[in-house]
Each structure stands twice: as structure tokens, then as C-alpha cells.
Design a protein that fits this description.
Elements: H1 2-6, E1 11-13, E2 16-18, H2 26-35, E3 40-45, E4 58-64, E5 82-89, E6 92-99, E7 104-111, H3 115-125, E8 129-133, H4 137-144, E9 153-157, H5 164-175, H6 189-205, E10 215-218, H7 229-234, H8 250-254, H9 260-271, H10 277-292, H11 294-304, H12 310-318, H13 324-334, H14 337-344, H15 350-357, H16 363-372, H17 393-403, H18 405-420, E11 426-430, E12 434-440, E13 452-456, E14 460-464, H19 466-498, H20 501-527, E15 539-545, H21 550-553, E16 561-566
Parallel strand pairs: 5-8, 7-10, 8-9
Antiparallel strand pairs: 1-2, 3-4, 5-6, 6-7, 11-12, 12-14, 13-14, 15-16
Helix pairs in contact: 5-6, 9-20, 10-20, 11-14, 11-20, 12-13, 12-20, 13-16, 17-19
Length: 573
């Protein structure tokens, strides 16, 4: 299967079919396997080969699935990672969705035999993968057949994982609570079963800690407007109906965000329009102030350009999947926070005041990473080149031993020349024989008795002394220990940062919200959009309205036109 999907040569050993890829380039191949809907087991050595008796023990450390492989980066900016869980029971259904980048599980349930409602709710979440009881395989596939979920990975699981007791126990244990009522799930058994089965699926496949999944909620349909799949498609909110291109949709022409979390959040806002007038007004005030203060807007947007995907980085760190370069990327992404905070104080809209009140400069995390990790560290963990000088005393001492080779060899060479009277005597090193003393054949009569012959050449002989042997063991041992110690220190630093994942998620969320508001201010300024008055009346009145997508993608200028609708005399236009 791997050979066919990846287009690489199929070989065999002892009649077992095999195919291989370079381990340092494995991620690009994993992307292709996951996009094809496959699950990939990652198996590694779990004991030191030097201490192993016989074959080195290996175990499956994790199973990557299309919706959970958050550490496998693709080229798609603002890409979501999430898994949905669907439970169907007579005329009731329960649904849960885990967003692995924000660490949130959302749940809902309904009482209807209408398949369209289930499809609409799945569409709202847009998961990459869906799990469901094996017994309902045919029913689920029938519901999803002919829908827009062409790339949705289907993952049937054991029926019992959707039973109430194991599902509820899994949730109670993970969130360390005695009751689920605080999450709004007290009387929502199907939502509990869907969420518990989903969390159990994640724990089974991702053997690492799932501490970054910290939020659980029941979604009330009254909070946002429900847009079904047909409306989203026909309104061309995220894809152009004719070309299928995202850049020719409403999202494509208004997305001026600069960060991946911001891009994801804008899409979420667009697909879940607000219904509360106060919340709508708060967003509008913020966008209007962003338009009115272009210098401040640009200053902050210049800082946002330096920030990478903090949500993804924090999830990778929490999963133990982050490498040294990921930690450097996190440090660089946290650097702009104090400057952004300073600029934020120029805004006074309630939305910005709320951001200011909860702003985290994360200077302690930046300081730790700056002291500990090299600015350009090695990619591989076991080969050193990760930790800065001055961070750990033992590491500094070992490096001093390792780096003192040239001066120490020069000292030994001088001492042995003086002792033997052989002026041509040389102390050298190579990877095969280690350290040795080389003496030409003409001077062999002057070699001391404590020299131990190591190798005979045509014109010379090589010797070793107890002192040189001791130094060799010390230096080579130091180099091995340096690599081991750097690995240990890195793992400790990563775990320390991982304990701050809740803070990092909040920082990522704050930056995403700021990015979206400022991007809307940017597009409003550039296109001369006007702030509409939104109230509870039954009237839609638009003067000189312009179509945001058509005026961008078509060559001819768009002719503005008026629109008027009300609930009494002009219900249909």
C-alpha cells in the first residue's frame, strides 16, 4: 500500500514486502499517506542498543491519523486539525468535535431523524476525520454519501467505547472532576457518549499526554446563526461554486490575516455569524477603531508578521513531538508580545480593553528558551548541538574536556619529544585507531619500554601510552555524554514549557482575535467598506451596495446598487 500511494520501489526480505523512505524526510511522505486517508503507526526503539540483549526492543509509540497528525506540517496556511465523533440512536444523535490546535472539545445532540441536520452540524465543524461505532458503518456511510465530505477519513471504532459508563469515566478522569454538569452536559447523555468515545480514541492513538485538551463545552444552537452546507456552498463563503477556488470566495477576498490561527479564526467567525447585538457591536467598534488608527494598526500587523503558529507549536510541545527548532520558533513568536502590548494601549474599544486585561508577555518563557537553546540548533535530538554554553555546568565542563584536544596533544607531544629525544615524534588521531604516537623506523631504538605497539607501517610505527589511552577514553566518553546530556536537558526544557500549554493556548487565541480584527480593519480601509448599523428591526436597507467578491475578481467595475427588504411589504426581492 505504501509503495502504491508514495510511488516508491517495492522490495522484500524473507518474502515480506517492504518499501522505504529516508528517515530525515519522512514528514513529506507522511503528509501524502495521511491525505490519502491512511493511518500510520510510528514504531521506534525503546531501549538503548548498547544495553540490549539480542534484538533491540521496539514499540508503537503513536498512531497518526488524518485528523490527529498535528505535528506533520503541510503547506496549507490556516489548516484545521480536528476529529468528529458521531453517535446515532433511533431518532436521536450525539456529536463531538475535538480541535487539536485550540485544545477544545465541543459537543451537541439532537432529536431528529432528519439526516440533513446531522450533516449540517458536521459541516460546521469541518473535521478531517470522523469516528463512529462499527455497527453503524453502513448507516454513517449512507448519511455521508453524496455530501461534500469527499476527503473525510472514516474511522470506525469498537461499539463499547460509545457506552455511557466508559465514555463518562474517560471524561471525568481526564478533566479531573466529579461531575460533568459544570460543562453543561448534565442531561446530555448522547453528547457525553460521543465526547468520551472521542477522547478515548485520541488517548489510544496518541500515547502522549493530552493535557493540552483542557476545554469541554456543549454548543447551544442559539449562540450563532446556523448556516447549513447548502447555504455555505451557494453563498460561496469559503469556495467559489464555479471554479472551486478558495481565493475567489468571500473568505478568500477578505482574509488579510497574517497568522495561521488568525486565518482559522476568521473562517470560524464567517461560518458562525453572531446573533447577539452587543457582541456584534463590540466587534464593529473594534474594526472601526482599527480603521481610524492606521499607524497603530500597521505597527501591530508588522509585529504579527513575525509570529508563527503558536497553537500548533504548543500542541506539538505538549505531545512531546517538538524538536529544538520548534522551541526556537516559539521563542521568536513570543518576542513581539511586549511591543504589541505597548501598541494595544492606543486602542480603547471594549474588544481591545478585554485583550489588554488578559495580555501575557511570556517573558519568563522567552528568557528560559533564550538561555537554553542555541539560536540555530541541530534538527536531530540525539546528536548534540542543541544547548547553549553557560546553561548547565556539567555540560560546560564536558565541552571543555572535548575541546581541549589540540592543546593537550601539543603538551603530550612536547613532553614525549623531550623525554625520548626524538624530534620527529608526532601525536595524532584518527577515527579508526584513536589517539597514537607515531615514530619513524630510524628512531625506534629510542622508544621507551612503556610504549605499547599499536600498528606497524612501512616507514614508521604507532604506539599508545597509558596516559594517552586514559585521555582518549576521557575525551570520547565526554563526547558521548555531551550528546546524552544535551538530549536530557532538551527533554526537561520541553516538558517545562509543556506545563505552560494553557498559557500558550490563551496567548495564541488572543493573537488570533487581534489578527482577525486588524485584518478586517485593513481590508475595510483598502476597499473603503462602511460600517453598517445592525439592530433588531425587521428591515434590510443597503444604499449603493457592492459585491465584495465580484468587484475583486472581475475585470469590469462593479456597479453599486440598492437593496431594500422588510417583514411587511417587501419580503421577497
Amino acid at each position: 500500500t505504501g509503495s502504491q500511494v508514495l510511488g516508491i520501489a517495492l522490495t522484500s526480505r524473507q518474502n515480506v514486502p517492504m518499501c522505504g523512505v529516508p528517515y530525515h524526510a519522512v514528514n513529506s511522505y507522511l503528509v501524502r499517506l495521511l491525505k490519502a486517508g491512511h493511518r500510520v503507526a510510528i514504531c521506534e526503539q525503546v531501549e538503548d542498543p548498547r544495553l540490549a540483549k539480542g534484538v533491540v526492543r521496539r514499540e508503537v509509540l503513536k498512531v497518526l491519523t488524518p485528523g490527529t497528525a498535528v505535528e506533520i506540517e503541510t503547506d496549507e496556511l490556516g489548516e484545521d486539525y480536528g476529529v468528529a465523533s458521531l453517535l446515532l440512536e433511533e431518532e436521536k444523535w450525539g456529536l463531538a468535535y475535538a480541535d487539536l490546535l485550540t485544545g477544545k472539545i465541543s459537543t451537541l445532540e439532537g432529536r431528529s431523524s432528519d439526516d440533513k441536520l446531522v450533516l449540517d452540524e458536521i459541516w460546521r465543524f469541518s473535521p478531517k476525520e470522523i469516528i463512529y461505532p462499527q455497527a453503524y458503518e453502513a448507516v454513517v456511510r449512507e448519511i455521508l454519501a453524496g455530501s461534500d465530505f469527499l476527503n473525510l477519513a472514516m474511522s470506525p471504532v469498537e461499539d463499547w467505547s460509545f457506552d455511557y459508563l466508559p465514555a463518562a469515566s474517560c471524561l471525568l478522569e481526564h478533566y479531573q472532576v466529579a461531575s460533568l454538569e459544570g460543562f453543561g452536559l448534565g442531561d446530555k447523555p448522547l453528547a457525553i457518549r460521543a465526547a468520551g468515545a472521542l477522547l478515548s480514541f485520541l488517548k489510544k492513538n496518541r500515547h502522549e499526554s493530552l493535557s493540552f485538551i483542557r476545554r469541554l463545552s456543549f454548543v447551544q444552537s442559539s449562540q450563532t446563526m446556523v448556516l447549513d452546507a447548502v447555504a455555505v456552498r451557494n453563498l460561496e463563503l469559503v469556495k467559489n461554486l464555479r471554479t472551486g477556488q478558495a481565493n475567489e470566495s468571500l473568505l478568500g477576498v477578505i482574509d488579510y490575516t497574517l497568522t495561521s490561527p488568525g486565518s482559522r479564526l476568521l473562517k470560524n467567525w464567517l461560518l458562525h455569524p453572531l446573533l447577539d447585538l452587543v457582541e456584534i457591536s463590540n466587534r464593529q467598534q473594534a474594526v472601526e477603531e482599527a480603521v481610524q488608527k492606521p499607524i497603530v494598526r500597521q505597527e501591530i500587523r508588522n509585529q504579527l508578521k513575525k509570529i508563527l503558529d503558536i497553537e500548533r507549536l504548543s500542541t506539538k510541545i505538549s505531545l512531546g513531538a517538538a524538536n529544538p527548532r520548534d522551541l526556537v520558533a516559539l521563542k521568536k513568536s513570543l518576542w513581539p508580545l511586549p511591543d504589541i502590548e505597548t501598541q494595544l494601549k492606543n486602542f480603547s474599544a471594549p474588544f481591545f480593553l478585554e485583550l489588554q486585561a488578559g495580555w501575557d508577555r511570556a517573558t519568563d518563557l522567552v528568557d528560559l528558551l533564550d538561555r537554553a537553546i542555541l539560536d540555530e540548533p541541530a534538527y536531530l535530538l540525539q546528536e548534540g548541538g542543541i544547548i547553549k554554553d553557560g546553561y548547565d555546568r556539567e555540560l560546560d565542563e564536558l565541552r571543555a574536556i572535548s575541546h581541549s584536544g589540540k592543546s593537550f596533544i601539543a603538551q603530550i607531544e612536547k613532553k614525549e619529544r623531550d623525554r625520548t629525544g626524538i624530534s620527529s615524534l608526532k601525536v595524532r588521531y584518527n577515527k579508526v585507531f584513536g589517539y597514537y604516537i607515531e615514530v619513524t623506523k630510524a628512531n625506534l631504538h629510542s622508544v621507551p619500554e612503556d610504549y605499547i605497539r599499536k600498528q606497524t607501517l612501512v616507514n614508521s610505527e604507532r604506539f599508545i601510552t597509558p596516559e594517552l589511552k586514559e585521555y582518549e577514553e576521557r575525551v570520547l566518553g565526554a563526547e558521548v555524554r555531551i550528546n546524552e546530556l544535551e538530549y536530557e536537558l532538551f527533554i526537561k526544557i520541553r516538558e517545562e514549557i509543556g506545563q505552560q500549554v494553557v498559557r500558550l493556548q490563551q496567548i495564541g487565541e488572543n493573537l488570533a482575535r487581534l489578527d482577525v480584527i486588524l485584518s478586517l480593519g485593513e481590508v475595510a480601509h483598502e476597499r473603503n467598506y462602511r460600517r453598517p448599523e445592525v439592530d433588531s428591526s425587521q428591515i434590510i436597507s443597503i444604499t449603493a451596495g457592492r459585491h465584495p467578491v465580484i468587484e475583486v475578481i472581475q475585470k469590469e467595475p462593479f456597479i453599486p446598487n440598492d437593496t431594500y427588504l422588510d417583514a411587511d411589504d417587501h419580503q421577497i426581492l
